[in-house]
């Protein structure tokens, strides 16, 4: 399954209804995604009204919400404060179906803070039905950032010790699928360390999307390839950020990773990634980073 193997673009605010347009004539596996779309609209509406009972019923037991400042709250912590984080309608919404994981992403304005953010809501299929697992927001920059961030810290020519994350992380995967996802991601970090673009490319779906903490427009696979080639041309080595915490959920041929990373320079990053397994190989389909204030 490729990134956004079945994808729809949703026009307008979700609370105003959805008009789905198939992308490249690829179709959803129908009922499940329609259920998620309905549940997502219900969740957005319940959060906006401060209806904790209705919202709580749609949240996974391991749900977390990371706001634009990088503050992460659990299910029990977010429900009492949800009304203050309500958004003024979602726009530019895209939905990616990965089987037991559905990603809904777009942008909206937080009325109480008068700021626009890019959001990602990750839904997972549990025995009891579809539940929201992750809600993350990243502030949108008012103008194009002078430099893009979220890739590591320049080494300045100094030797790089990449024990964490290249060789080890402070997380013990549960089961073979989780181990495969973590090992694959560590291999990606090693390709970034060496600017090995040819080894980097197969680990990302063709429609890979990366929401960066600098607030600039999301990057695609071609953007990242060009960046890595430029790093190699200029003989620049980036130090991968150390993992401070990590959690992985493997669900069939999809997986979700939530982690926090401390760069050699700069603020700690909260990161959500979505993985998909295609032809026996895990690939990264989506990534979003939020800098912690």
Number of helices: 7
End-to-end span in angstroms? 36 Å
What class do helices, strands and sheet pairing give? alpha+beta
User: What gross morphology would you assign?
Assistant: globular
Question: Strands of the largest sheet, in order across it?
Answer: 2-1-5-6-7-8-3-4
- CATH topology (level 3) name of the largest domain: Nuclear Transport Factor 2, Chain: A
CATH hierarchy, class of the largest domain: Alpha Beta
* N-to-C series of helices and strands: EEHHEEHEEEEEHHHEEHEEEEE
Task: Indicate the proportion of strand residues.
Answer: 35-45%
User: Low-confidence segments, ≥5 residues, pLDDT <50?
Assistant: 1-28
Describe this structure in words.
The structure is a single chain. The protein is built from seven helices and 16 strands. It is of the alpha+beta class. The protein folds into two domains: 6-139, Nuclear Transport Factor 2, Chain: A (Roll), CATH 3.10.450; 153-291, Nuclear Transport Factor 2, Chain: A (Roll). The model is unreliable at 1-28 (pLDDT under 50).
Blueprint of the fold:
Blueprint: E1 6-10, E2 20-22, H1 31-49, H2 52-56, E3 59-66, E4 72-74, H3 75-78, E5 87-97, E6 101-110, E7 115-126, E8 129-139, E9 153-154, H4 163-167, H5 175-194, H6 197-200, E10 204-211, E11 219-220, H7 221-233, E12 238-239, E13 242-251, E14 254-262, E15 269-278, E16 281-291
Parallel strand pairs: 3-8, 10-16
Antiparallel strand pairs: 1-2, 1-5, 3-4, 5-6, 6-7, 7-8, 9-12, 10-11, 13-14, 14-15, 15-16
Task: Summarize this structure as a short list of keywords or feature phrases.
globular, 16 strands, single chain, Nuclear Transport Factor 2, Chain: A, 2 domains, 293 residues, alpha+beta, 6-stranded mixed beta sheet
């Amino acid at each position: 399954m490729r990134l956004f193997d079945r994808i729809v673009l949703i026009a307008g605010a979700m609370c105003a209804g959805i008009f789905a347009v198939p992308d490249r004539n690829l179709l959803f596996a129908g009922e499940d995604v329609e259920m998620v779309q309905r549940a997502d609209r219900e969740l957005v509406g319940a959060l906006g009204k401060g209806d904790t009972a209705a919202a709580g019923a749609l949240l996974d037991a391991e749900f977390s919400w990371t706001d634009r400042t990088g503050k992460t709250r659990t299910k029990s912590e977010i429900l009492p404060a949800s009304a203050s984080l309500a958004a003024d309608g979602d726009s530019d919404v895209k939905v990616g179906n990965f089987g037991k994981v559905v990603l809904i992403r777009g942008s909206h304005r937080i009325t109480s803070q008068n700021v626009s953010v890019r959001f990602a809501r990750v839904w997972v299929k549990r025995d009891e039905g579809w539940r929201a697992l992750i809600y993350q927001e990243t502030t949108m920059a008012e103008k194009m950032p002078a430099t893009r961030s979220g890739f590591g810290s320049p080494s300045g020519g100094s030797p790089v010790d990449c024990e964490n994350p290249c060789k080890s992380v402070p997380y013990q995967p549960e089961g073979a699928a989780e181990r495969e996802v973590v090992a694959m991601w560590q291999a990606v970090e090693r390709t970034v360390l060496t600017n090995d673009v040819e080894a980097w490319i197969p680990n990302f779906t063709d429609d890979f999307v990366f929401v960066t903490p600098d607030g600039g427009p999301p990057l695609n696979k071609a953007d990242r390839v060009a960046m890595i080639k430029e790093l190699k041309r200029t003989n620049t080595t980036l130090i991968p950020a150390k993992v401070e915490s990590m959690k992985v959920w493997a669900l069939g041929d999809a997986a979700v990773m939530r982690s926090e990373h401390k760069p050699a320079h700069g603020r700690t990053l909260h990161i959500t990634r979505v993985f998909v397994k295609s032809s026996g190989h895990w690939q990264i389909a989506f990534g979003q980073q939020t800098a912690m204030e």
